[in-house]
Write a structure and sequence with these properties.
This protein is mostly helical and 246 residues long. The protein contains twelve helices and no strands.
Length: 246
């Protein structure tokens, strides 16, 4: 049995497990499981082709990262509807991923080569997207739950960003809990993806650990910036109770 056949067999069985357990538990997500897996297969295949082209033509790397940033910003902004906050999420994700990758490249921890910088920065964009979404959603929940406090500050003459400052701080802190826990338990509870991937690719454990540390701490920095920028950006917009409640 060839490797490709084994891969298809494993994927099919994993889909059956996810759909079957969900059906037995009454989750009603069998259709969603099938759709997301098909999408993942198509998207991974396309990404492989695009990355192959970018690695052969490094001048295309900035365009690829801008496309990734745009998609991440749009995805995060959709989760914060009905607010129109695409500029906020774009700034937050770009600031998070950009600042962390700039530090790593400037210090020489990663060589300024598309093969290293492109996947590293793309991963930071993904982590920043998650942090921006979590921080934004949790801030809206905090505003709704504590609207009487916000309304009191507004009645006293506070500007919207001042009235929402505490909600923003709580939301940003809670949004960073997954990143903090992942960093705290690395190597004890889980072996992160970059580490496992490098080992499977033939890298030594020390080489894999070095890269994984850069990824983990880089994600922590990027997600912190993204969460703070998101909540500060939302705090500078007028948020009413009906808007936060949707």
């Amino acid at each position: 049995m060839s490797g490709d056949v084994r891969l298809v067999l494993a994927l099919g069985l994993l889909v059956l497990v996810a759909a079957g357990v969900g059906r037995a538990a009454g989750l009603r997500q069998e259709r969603d499981v099938g759709i997301v897996v098909v999408r993942a297969v198509v998207q991974i295949g396309l990404v492989g082709l695009v990355l192959g082209l970018v690695l052969r033509t490094p001048v295309l790397a900035p365009a690829y990262l801008l496309l990734a940033l745009g998609a991440a910003s749009w995805t995060s902004a959709r989760r914060l509807r009905p607010l129109r906050v695409w500029p906020v999420t774009a700034l937050a994700i770009g600031a998070g991923a950009g600042s962390a990758s700039a530090v790593v490249v400037a210090t020489g921890a990663l060589p300024l080569h598309v093969l290293q910088v492109l996947p590293f920065t793309a991963q930071l964009i993904g982590g920043s997207m998650t942090a921006a979404t979590l921080a934004g959603r949790r801030m809206l929940d905090e505003v709704e739950a504590g609207w009487d406090v916000v309304e009191g500050w507004l009645a006293l003459g506070a500007r919207p960003h001042e009235a929402l400052a505490e909600a923003g701080r709580l939301a940003a802190a809670r949004a960073l809990v997954p990143a903090l826990d992942q960093t705290r338990t690395v190597g004890i509870v889980t072996l992160p993806g970059a580490f496992v991937g490098l080992l499977l690719g033939g890298a030594s454990p020390l080489q894999a650990a070095r890269v994984q540390l850069l990824v983990l701490v880089g994600l922590l920095a990027a997600e912190t910036v993204a969460a703070v920028v998101t909540t500060r950006g939302l705090g500078r917009r007028v948020v009413t109770r009906p808007l936060a409640a949707r």
